[in-house]
Amino acid sequence: MKKFITYGVAPIAAIFGLFLTVAPVHAGDINKVYKDTCELCHGPDGKGSEAGKGFGVPDFSSADYQKSRTDAQMKESMTNGTKNQNYVKLSDLGVDAADVDPLIKKVREFCK
């Protein structure tokens, strides 16, 4: 029995542990995705960080900005990039495509 645990269960547990550390820890947690991939430039409130403002990021809390963009346009920007050379596509940051629509919803929530 001891050999079974040493040679059977331990390697399986190690592989399972490795899988858990490689899998995205924030997939589906939109607040974590935003914090880890967007907040550096767009700020915690969507108004833009100092660095982001320097790069020309939009103010997500602005009603004018929100009216100027459809969800489809936001998805296009997030997925394929923008004219802003400093923008990094979400896929290049490791964001799962399934998280894009919830991120759009989060961006919409900055404008109250």
Task: Explain this structure.
With 112 residues, the chain is mostly helical. Helices cover 58% and strands 0% of the residues. It is built from 7 helices and no strands. The radius of gyration is 19 Å and the shape is globular. The termini are far apart. The relative contact order is 0.14.
Can you tag this structure with a few keywords?
112 residues; mainly alpha; 7 helices; 0% strand
What's the total count of β strands? 0
Poorly predicted regions are 8-25
**First-to-last CA distance:** 62 Å
For the largest beta-sheet, the strand count, sense and barrel status come to: none
Shape: globular
Q: What integer value in Å does the Rg equal?
A: 19 Å
| Mean of pLDDT | 83
Class inferred from helices and paired strands:
mainly alpha
Written as H for each helix and E for each strand, in order along the chain, the element string is HHHHHHH
Number of helices: 7
Share of residues in helices: 55-70%
Topology:
Blueprint: H1 2-22, H2 30-37, H3 39-42, H4 50-55, H5 63-68, H6 71-80, H7 100-109
In short:
The chain has 112 residues and is mainly α.
